[in-house]
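Give me structure tokens for this 126-residue protein.
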Amino acid sequence: MNIHKNARTTPNMRALIVGRRQAGETPRSIAGAVGVSPATVSKWLRRHESEGVAGFQDRTRQPHGLRTWITSEQTLKTETLHLARQPFWKIVREAGAFQCDGGPRRKSQGAEPPVRPRSQDRDHAL
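Here you go.
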């Protein structure tokens, strides 16, 4: 487990919090002694109560998945409008979803991102 450099508590500190509570100290006095808020002390006490010593380990802060799902038709429409250099508001209105370039979806399927023409390669109307 990697403890980041700004972590206020470690698994050993969390065990100390639980030990002090079992010895009869109040969450407020424990918080003052170890330099964290009473809410943090209560969080670790709740985790210990529900999960035991395993609850002292850090959890991931990464989202478990996308919050919204879009259909393949919406994805195609979004990508088409994006490649046509349409403004964001128009993409959202017409496709009904937010996914500007489909980058994560495309990469997960192993496809290459679309190649846009460079400015010197575009046709310029004079």
